[in-house]
Amino acid sequence: MKLTVTKQGTGNGVVTAVPGTITWSGKTGTALFDKDTSVTLTASPAARAWTGCDLNIGLTNCMITMSVDKGVTVEFGTKVKHDFNGDGKADILWRNETTGDVAIWLMDGTKMNGGDFVARGVSADWDIKEIGDFNGDGKSDVLWQNTAGDVYIWLIEGTVIKTGGFAVRGMPDEWQVIALGDFNGDGNDDIMWRNTNSGDIYVWFVNGTERNGGGYVVKSMKSEWTVKATADFNGDGKSDVLWQNTTTGDVAMWLMDGLSMSTGNYVETAVPDNWQIKGIDDFNGDGEADILWQNTTIGDAVIWFMNGLSIANGGYVRKGVPQNWQIKVVGDYNGDGKADILWQDTTTGDIYVYLMDGMNISGEGFVTLGLSNDWQPK
């Protein structure tokens, strides 16, 4: 009896079968089973769709009964950032800077669809450094670092800490976590470090809470070149590096293949200081990350749609946004495969979301009003 599973789409994902083992050749997996064996196929991460199932079980599982040879197909989309429950929609992680409490809001468009405290009273010497998926389950996790240099990872499921552990203890002060990204394409986010004394850039490959190899990306990088983001700008399933020169305003990109730069170039030169990068995500659903800018003087917000090293297109999202409204986070809050924008009014505490379709606002609305400024999204 033969089961053939075909993977389609531009995103990243893993398919597992119980019982049995799937042997992969490129995008096609094949497995042998006895007659009438029931097989459950599980796809991760989020943003997937099965066809050819006898029974669909939730978002992730496809059940088939092997009475004859069968073929099923799973199509993967791009992994959703800040998705803590694996429903294909970005959520919001909050920390109260006075009490240390940490909470997650599970989002559905502009509405909160559940949420809870994750932890209370986390000590002020612990700082949330990054959010990413370290175990490849399609659910975002949280990376912490304290003033002693200890790095700790929470593996999250919904609003619950499933497990956690130290990635390292006593990291020297000059080594700073600057970004996360999946540099080797294994579905797990990796940790990028920078040595503030030498300029060396180093990546740790991560599996759950444990380091799983790594290496230098570059040594002795000049201090004026800062890593603004890591994201997949060319759609190959591996993170690339976006740089900006703090002296000249030049923006450059390295397209990465693991720890090596496959190619790189300037994206733009001499960007004025009042234009700030506010978010990196895929705003038009083409599988390639884009760049959200805001002019901090006049409030204009602009998106560059990227195609590798080149700006393929772009335009204004909105002009003249009042300065009390700040872009806090970007993420796909309605699960349409396109990133949206979360704003916070620093005067009133109101939280507002733009649902985006490219550079167009397809929907918008308040998430909540009058939230205390002690609560900050991460």
Question: Could you characterize what this model shows?
Answer:
- The protein is mostly beta strands and 378 residues long.
- It has a domain at 2-76.
- Helix content is 0%, strand content 57%.
- Strands 3-4-1-9-6 form a five-stranded mixed β-sheet, with no helix packed on it. It has a four-stranded antiparallel β-sheet with strand order 2-5-8-7, with no helix packed on it. It has a four-stranded antiparallel β-sheet with strand order 12-11-10-33, with no helix packed on it.
- The relative contact order is 0.11.
- The model has no long low-confidence stretch (mean pLDDT 91).
Keywords:
single chain, 378 residues, mainly beta, 5-stranded mixed sheet, 4-stranded antiparallel sheet, 0% helix, globular, Integrin_alpha_N, signal, FG-GAP repeat-containing protein, FG-GAP
What percentage of amino acids are in beta strands?
over 45%
> In total, how many beta strands?
33
State the distance separating the first and last CA atoms: 49 Å
* Estimated radius of gyration: 21 Å
Backbone shape? globular
The profile of the biggest β sheet is: 5 strands, mixed
Helicity, as a percent range: under 10%
Query: Which strand order does the major sheet show?
Result: 3-4-1-9-6
- Roughly what is the average pLDDT, rounded to an integer? 91
The number of distinct helices, counting runs of at least 4 residues, comes to 0
Protein name: FG-GAP repeat-containing protein
Keywords: Signal
Organism: Candidatus Magnetobacterium bavaricum
InterPro entries: FG-GAP, Integrin_alpha_N
